[in-house]
Amino acid sequence: MSLSKLLLCMATLAALSGCASWFVKGEIPDVLVANITPLDSTPFEQRLKIDLRIRNPNDYELQVTGMDIRLDLNGKRLARGLGNQAFTVPRLSDSVVTIETTTSTLDVVRQVLGLRKVQALSYEISGVLYLKDGRLPFENSGVLMEKGELSGILTP
């Protein structure tokens, strides 16, 4: 084997082992939306406080140093948030953490105009938990209101 091939092989292995340390081994935690509270707003921007319940199915605690989330409603982006709050999720347990997010007023208007009486209101939350030892991507979804439950709310 030539020296250049050997060096390329060693560099590839080193890069792959470095990338592997970015992701922590174990089960991915469940991240669920527990509550959404509107905060201050301007004509161009809306702020939301989102309480997230993080369930740790692993036999070790998660020492979270920050997070990056995206919240979609009915397949369209509603809000994005970043947080550098450190917290610990005990092993085989859960914790509730709050993150402030931002969305544009235009995105909120699109969401309201896109609601139909017969459509269910579903959400998807995705992002990354940054840990001391790496990071854990997550993704979860659910239904806030079943099909037809919006009819009483949207009818004047």
TrEMBL record:
The keyword Signal applies. Residues 1-20 form the signal peptide. The keyword Signal applies. SUPFAM superfamilies: LEA14-like (SSF117070). PROSITE patterns: PROKAR_LIPOPROTEIN. One of its GO terms (biological process) is response to desiccation. Keywords: Signal. Residues 31-143 form the Water stress and hypersensitive response domain. Pfam families: LEA_2. It comes from the Bacteria. This is Water stress and hypersensitive response domain-containing protein. It comes from Nitrospira lenta. The lineage of its organism: Bacteria, Pseudomonadati, Nitrospirota, Nitrospiria, Nitrospirales.
